[in-house]
Each structure stands twice: as structure tokens, then as C-alpha cells.
User: Fold these one by one.
Assistant:
Number 1:
Amino acid sequence: MVLFFQIIAFLAPLFSPADGPYRCNNGKVYFHSKASLESIEASSNNLRGAIDPANRSFAWSVETASFTGFNSPLQLEHFNENYMENSKYPRINFTGKVIENLDFSANGKHSVRAKGKLNIHGVEQERIIRSDVEITGNKIRVKAQFTVFLADHDIHIPQIVHQKIAEEITVNIDAVLQN
């Protein structure tokens, strides 16, 4: 939580008062792991984010402990303690810029690319994530689907559960930001 507010504080001087920032405190993150022996699903309604229309910068953050779902309480425990190690790496962050020169004052639907640093499990990877953006008045809805490879973020799966946890995870984002 502290890191998220540090990111927002860092970006705050960049925001134009007339154009933003747009903020979200309850975006949705859903992930799906489909392995040969098991399918695992979990979600969080605690995605926080901000977008600055003046320079197209953004910051997103979700606490790993906020995910619920899973097939059992033991899976949730293993997710938090063994794989995500949320006592060491409590948040997932994505910060960067929208590549396209999007006019945030014009209502409509747009497909854009978000380029930035995705930090999961303490490992930062530069990513470009395609997103659908719908602008309506003072609201921006962002939807995205992308894949995360566990090996890219040093998340190791023990051989004994290798057929129950996929090496690549599908992630969906749905968030509404307001200014």
C-alpha cells in the first residue's frame, strides 16, 4: 500500500489539474491457471490505479493477499506463502505510459498499448500490454487480458505439483477510473 502511494506521489506533479488524474480503488484482477490435472482461478477487487492524461502515464498496484477464490484454503495458503511469498513481495505493480497519443477528453472506445514495468514477486519485466479503453465523461474503463510466465518472475513450481499449476497464467483486468 505504501509503495502505491509513493508511486502516486511521484506522479502527482505530472498531473494536469484540468485533465486528471483518473483514479481507481476497486478494479478487478482475475487469473486462471489451466494445467493438465487442475484448473485454478482467483480474483481480487482491490486493484488500485491512476492515469495521467497529460503525459499518458499510469500506475497500477494490487496486494497479493487480496486474491480470493482458489479450489481450497490450502491452495490459497500455498499461493501466498510459497509462490508469491507475499510477506517479502506484498504487491504486484505495473507502471509506465500509454504508447498511443490518446485524447482522454474524447468519449469513445480505443485499443491502446501500455508499455511499462510489471513487477511480480520482486522481479521487474518490461511489458507491452494491449488494453481496451472506453472513455465516457469523467470515467475511463480499462480492460486487458495478458499472459504471465511464472519463470519470468522467478516463481518456481515444485515438481510434485507441476501438473497442477500452469507455467503461464492468464490475467484479466477490468477497472473504472474517475477524475
Note: The longest helix spans residues 73-83.
Number 2:
Amino acid sequence: MKILMLHGINHDMFGKRDPQQYGTITLDEINAQLQALGQQLGASVDCFQTNHEGAMCERIHQGYLEGVDAVLINAGAWTHYSYGIRDALAILTCPIVELHMSNIHAREPFRHVSVFAEIVKGQICGFGVDSYLLALRAAISAAKGT
């Protein structure tokens, strides 16, 4: 099973950026945990991060062409306004799980809205790095149809 993990804008700064919201874990550490759990669950996890919206759309298109079994996405601020990424995600025929380290519903009002909500299988937020691990389990389950 192939899972695509998409990290959005500013996520390369995890470990340095706003530790009260995001903790001190780095993106490399998050990816390592995802890949280790994926291996335990019989899935390979390909991780991608970009600060460029067009590159994110192109990686989603590539995932479609590769036939990935599920997509995890933490798009960061793009979650709240990127119709381009939303439209790219809508092309996918596999389960999509949106996730966030912080509880977006307990933060600034603009963060309460996800333009992806209507097209994703579900959302997980507020559990720090565990949001990623929970999302991976959910995506694998959804891809298996269980």
C-alpha cells in the first residue's frame, strides 16, 4: 500500500516555529515516525513538503498518476483558502485525510474553515505529532475499506 503524505507551507520550520502550538518536533522526526508506523502497518509512506502552492498541486497530480492508495495532507495555512490545492485533491479517487497538529477550531476564527472539508474522508486535529499517526491509521483503514 502506498500512502502520500503532503506537508504544506512553513512545515519545514517545525521545531523552530511557534513551539507552543507545534512543539519542538522537526519535520524529519515526524516523517520518520510516519514511515516507521507505515512499515509496521504494511504501507510505504512517501513524504513531500513544499512552500510553493503550484509544486503541491503538481505532487498531488503525480500521486494520482502513481495510483497512491491514500493521501494525508497537512496543508497549513493553505487549508483555509487554497482552492487550487482543493481542486487538485478533488481529482484523487483515493481516501484523503486532512490533519493538523493544533486544534484549528480552538484558534483564530479564520482557521476554523477548511476549504478541503467537503472532499476529504475526515479530519484529525489537536493531537500534535499523534495527529499524523492517527491520520495514517485512518487512511490505511479507509483504503482497505474497513
Note: Helices lie at 19-22, 27-40, 53-66, 83-91, 129-144.
